[in-house]
Each structure stands twice: as C-alpha cells, then as structure tokens.
Task: inverse folding
C-alpha cells in the first residue's frame, strides 16, 4: 500500500475539472461567482493531529468551500482573521456541486 501524500495543486485542479462536469446549472452559476485560485488554509480538527492544511476553492466573505485531501470530500466553513478555519460550518459534505447549492455557502 502506498503511503498517503497530500494532493498537489495540479491534482486538485484536475479534480475540480472532473467535479464541474457533474454540476447542475445552479452549481455552475454559484461556482463561477465565488471560485478562487486554490490556496491553503490551516485547520485544527483534533489535538492528536494538530494543525493541518486544506485547500480553499471558493470564497464568499469569510465563508469558504474547502477540500480535504485526507477525507477526499468538500465542505464549507468560516475562516478567522488569522486564516484558520474557525468553524467547520456543515463539515465535510461530499461533492463540490452539493456544497455549492445545498448548504449555507453563497446564500
């Protein structure tokens, strides 16, 4: 079994391209309005693992859509002034289209 490696930006962009193929018309509209060049933010989900990094792929104020390459899911959250995810919002919820249209993001 291969050792886990963090997703690269190139791999993330390929994943985003695949996710976009599954978008509804509404998801396309929301994504086009809020997408950003992917960048990393820090998150502390447990004391055992400490500070980790996840990728932000869309942003509306201090609310972001992020991708966790450990769980291989998208979610939405709030980012604090230091650039940390402070509240996981709905946590990890699955595919990108769902996060964009069926959660609090972009409302």
Result:
């Amino acid at each position: 079994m291969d050792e886990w490696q963090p997703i690269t930006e190139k791999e993330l962009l390929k994943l985003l391209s695949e996710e976009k193929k599954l978008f509804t018309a509404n998801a396309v509209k929301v994504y086009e309005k809020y997408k950003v060049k992917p960048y990393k933010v820090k998150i502390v989900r447990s004391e055992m693992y400490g500070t980790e990094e996840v990728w932000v792929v869309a942003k509306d104020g201090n609310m972001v859509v992020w991708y966790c390459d450990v769980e291989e899911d998208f979610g939405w959250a709030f980012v604090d002034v230091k650039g940390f995810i402070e509240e996981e919002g709905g946590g990890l919820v699955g595919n990108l289209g769902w996060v964009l249209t069926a959660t609090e993001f972009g409302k």
User: Anything to note?
Assistant: The first helix runs from residue 9 to 20. The chain is about 25% helix and 45% strand.
